[in-house]
Design a protein that fits this description.
By secondary structure, this protein is α/β, with parallel strands linked by helices. 41% of the residues lie in helices and 19% in strands. The protein has 12 helices and 8 strands. The termini are far apart. This is Glycosyltransferase 2-like domain-containing protein.
């Protein structure tokens, strides 16, 4: 039984002792008082859990063995008591007014089970120092707090197949929606959020607020920067197509050609990344799929031949 009006903020954390205080402080600074914070330490090897335990006695801290972000988010969801669940990655931050704008919006639109917001990237200088976050907020031109991005709102499942424009740190979901779609798929080490929000978008109308309400910290220690030699994005969208096809519940859809183009771009991009990392065999497999998806794309053929030859001698 969830507590009406309460927002449970779930923060998975792994080796973010240097950044997690900024994340938590950005939540505590929100102008919404009915909330609980649940931090799930996913087997950190640094002082992440100690920082939370020492500095933030009001936070519910869960310690667990390392299992990945999906397992940590699921542990947080299970412990959460709120009517609403909000997600925040431990190295990112929320901007002032975020939570109030999103909860007010959900209260105003009963048919919306999930909303998200725009965000900006937060990049360090050459010394690794991140600038004052308030200086990183782009000019929003007097945009209203709850302004809706009409292009990226509504039944958006078919649009999400072509572009993952929902970023986890900006998401607030109703607990009732989570009860319907279940927990994160723990078989994904990356891409679990993309799969989860595709699943959600097939069950509910999603609204994206136009204002920038969060900053995405870009640094070498992030999961996406560390990278894994497996193409999770292709697995996510191919799995979604197999389950639900290419159409949203309201009938809007993308074409098979658009989907193939999207797959091609994913395979080509991943192939190039793996090639840059020196993993020719994995890169070859991606370029082989890129050729399958778009046989007339000459660059895919060229890289497939190059990586295939290099893989033989690796």
């Amino acid at each position: 039984m969830s507590v009406k009006g309460l927002v449970s903020v779930v923060i998975p954390a792994y080796n973010v002792g240097a950044h997690i205080s900024e994340a938590i402080d950005s939540v505590l600074a929100q102008d919404y008082s009915e909330m609980e914070l649940v931090v799930v330490d996913d087997g950190s090897k640094d002082d992440t859990a100690d920082v939370v335990e020492t500095r933030y006695p009001q936070v519910t801290l869960i310690r667990k063995a390392n299992g990945g972000a999906a397992t940590a988010r699921n542990a947080g969801i299970r412990a959460a008591q709120g009517e609403f669940i909000a997600f925040l990655d431990a190295d990112d931050i929320w901007l002032p007014g975020k939570l109030r704008a999103q909860i007010d919006h959900l209260n105003a639109y009963a048919e919306v089970g999930m909303n998200c917001t725009d965000f900006a990237r937060w990049v360090s200088d050459d010394r690794g120092v991140f600038p004052d976050p308030l200086l990183e907020i782009p000019d929003q031109g007097g945009m209203a707090a709850g302004a809706i991005d009409q292009e990226l709102s509504g039944w958006v499942y078919h649009k999400l197949l072509l572009d993952n424009f929902v970023w986890t740190t900006t998401v607030v979901m109703r607990r009732s929606l989570i009860d319907k779609i279940g927990l994160y798929d723990e078989s994904f080490r990356l891409g679990q959020d993309y799969e989860y929000f595709l699943r959600a978008s097939h069950e509910t109308v999603v609204h994206r607020l136009s204002r920038v309400y969060a900053l995405y910290r870009q640094h070498a220690g992030s999961a996406t920067a560390r990278g894994i030699d497996y193409n999770y994005a292709a697995r996510v969208i191919e799995g979604a197509r197999a389950k639900w096809g290419l159409a949203s519940p309201n009938g809007e859809c993308i074409s098979p050609r658009e989907f193939q183009d999207r797959l091609h771009k994913i395979h080509f991009m991943c192939g190039y990344v793996f090639w840059q990392r020196g993993n020719a065999a994995t890169a070859f497999n991606e370029f082989k799929h890129a050729v399958r998806d778009k046989p007339l794309h000459l660059k895919s053929w060229a890289y497939a031949l190059l990586t295939g030859a290099r893989a033989i001698f690796q």
